[in-house]
Amino acid sequence: MEILTEPFHYAFMQRAFVAALAVGLICSTMGTYVILRKLSFIGDGIAHASFAGIVIAYLRGANFYLGAGIVAVLTAVGIGFVHRRGRISLDTTIGVLFTGMFALGVFLMSQQRSYAVDLQSFLFGDILAVQPQDLWLILGLSIIVGVTVAVLFRGLLYTTFDPVVAQASGINSPAYEYALLVMLALTIVVALQAVGIVLVAALLVTPAAAAYQLTSRFSPMMALAALFGAASTEGGLYLSYYVRASSGATIVLLATLLFFLAIGLKHLRRA
Amino acid sequence: MKKQVILRQAQDETRQGQDDAERDAVVARDLDVRYEDFTALVGATFAVHYGEALGIVGPNGSGKSTLLKTIAGLLLPSSGELSVLGQPPRKLPPGTIAYVPQVEAVDWSFPATVWDVVAMGRFARLRFWQHFGPNDREVVHHALSVVSMGDLAGRRISNLSGGQQQRAFVARALAQEPKLLLLDEPTTGVDAATEEALRKIVRKLVGDGLPVLMATHDLDRVDDWFDRLLVLDRRVLALGTPREVVESGAYSAIREHTHTHGHLRHDHEPHAAHAAHPEIRA
C-alpha cells in the first residue's frame, strides 16, 4: 500500500498533481472547440510561436509565463485576423510564420552555454519543476478560462456550429472567435510547463477526439473530454513516477491509448 | 389561399395613407455590393412589404445569395442605402433577422440533436445571465411541430435526410421569432413533399404578417409561392407580381438562361440583354 501512495509524499509531486489536473481539464475543454472548429493546427502553431517568447523572457530574466503569454496571445489574435481576411491561406501563414518564430527561439537559446538541458524541458515540459508561484498562475489562468467558457457557453456553441447564421441573428461571431483564440492561447501557455511545446497539441486534440467518438451531443462531449483529459494527465504523471519516464510523454501516450480504446468501444457498441 | 389574399388586400387598404417606412420591411436604394475584384450587385433598388413573400429569381452567380447576406448584415454594401425595419441591418436588436442558408453551409457531423440545433434559434434573444427557460422550450417545441419534426427532436443531426436538414434549419429560424425571414434556395435537393410543406409554412407565416425573402432557382411554381418576384442578374431586371414579371419578358429570358445553361456562367461578361428589358415596378 505504501508503495502506491509514495508519489504523493513529496511536495513537488503534490504540486505537480494539482497542476496536471488543471492542465488536463482546461486543455480538453478547449480541445472540444479545437476539434469542432478544426483549429488543431492553430494550437500547434501558437505553441511553437510562443517558444520565441519564452526564450526572450528567459534571456532577459523575465517571467516565463509573461513572455509566453504575450507572444501566444498576439499570435492568436494575428491568426484570427489572417483567418478573417482570408487572403492568404491559413496553413501557409502558420507553416511559415511559426516555424520561423520557433527557429528564432532555438537560435537565441543555442547562443547560451547551457542550452541543451533547458531546451529539452521546454520542448517536452517538466511538470515536476512547478514552483508554488507557478501553481497559483496555472490555477488562476485555468479558472479564468473555465469561467469564460461557462459565461460565453451558448454563443461559443452557436458560433462553432454555424457562425454565419449566428451572426445574422445578431450574435457577434468574430468577437467570439477572437475570444476563443485568446482563451486558446492562455490554455496553451498553462499547458506548456506540463507537456511542453511538442506535446501540447496532443493534449488539446486527443481527449476531445476520444470523447467525440462516444457522444452525440456537445455538452456530454465536453464533459467526457474533460474527464479523459484529467485522467490522462493525472494517470500519466502517476505512471511516469514508477516507469521513470518523461511525465509529458507518458501523459500523451496515455491520452493516445484512451483514444484508441474509445474507437474500439464505439465499434463494439455498433456491432 | 383565397382568404389570405383577401385579407392581405384588406390590410393593404388599411395601410393606404401610411408612408413607405411603415409599409416596407426592407428598403434598398441604389445598392452596390462589391467583392474584392468584382461587383456582385449593381444599383439594386426595391422594397419588401410587410406580409408579403418576395421571390428572388435569377441564374447562378446573379447575386441572389449576396443580396440575402447583405440584408442579413453579413455583408456591407459598398454604396447605396439599405434599411431593414427602419434601420441598417447591423443596428437591429438581436434576433430580428432569421437567415436560412443552404444546408451545405454547416458540418452535419457536429455532435448535436435536432432539438439542440433548433434551440440555437433562441440564443440571440438570451442574455449571458438568462437561463434557457420554459418559455424557450415552449417556442422550440412549437417550431418543431410547425415543420412536423416533433418526433425527431432527439435524433442526431448526422442522421437526417436532406429534407429533414432543411426543415430543421427552418425550425431554428422560427424559434428565433424573427421580424424578417430570409431563405436561400430552401427547395434545393429536397423531395416534393418537403417542398410543399415548406411552401405551406411560408404562406402561413406571410399570412401572419411576416415579410419573407426567398432566393430560388425553381421557377415552376413561383405564383404559388410568392406575392411578388424580383428578377436579378446583378441588377434588378424586373420587380412585380409573377404575372407582371412574366409579361415583361425579363422572366422568360432568365428562365431560358437558367434552363439551358443554368450552371456556372461568367460573371464578368457584359449583359447586353439588360437594355432590352426595361424594369417594371409594382
Explain what you see.
Chain A is an all-alpha fold and 271 residues long. Helices cover 85% and strands 0% of the residues of chain A. Chain A is built from 12 helices and no strands. Chain A has helices spanning 2-5, 11-36, 40-59, 64-85, 90-110, 115-124, 132-151, 153-161, 163-168, 173-214, 218-243, 247-270. Chain A is globular. Chain A starts with a helix and ends with a helix. In chain B, 35% of the residues lie in helices and 21% in strands. In chain B, helix 5 crosses helix 6. The two termini of chain B are 21 Å apart. The model of chain B is unreliable at 1-18 and 260-282 (pLDDT under 50). Chain A binds chain B through residues 36, 151-152, 154-155, 157-158, 160-162, 164-171, 212, 215-218, 220-221, and chain B through 69, 72-74, 92-101, 105-107, 110-113, 116-117, 120-121, 123-124, 126, 128, 132, 156, 172, 176, 178, 182.
Helices and strands in order, then pairings?
The complex is a heterodimer of chains A (271) and B (282).
Chain A: H1 2-5, H2 11-36, H3 40-59, H4 64-85, H5 90-110, H6 115-124, H7 132-151, H8 153-161, H9 163-168, H10 173-214, H11 218-243, H12 247-270
Chain B: H1 2-15, H2 20-23, E1 24-34, E2 39-49, E3 53-57, H3 64-71, E4 79-84, E5 97-100, H4 114-119, H5 134-146, H6 162-175, E6 180-184, H7 192-207, E7 212-216, H8 222-225, E8 228-233, E9 235-240, H9 242-248, H10 250-261
Parallel strand pairs in B: 3-7, 3-8, 5-6, 6-7
Antiparallel strand pairs in B: 1-2, 1-4, 8-9
Helix pairs in contact in B: 5-6
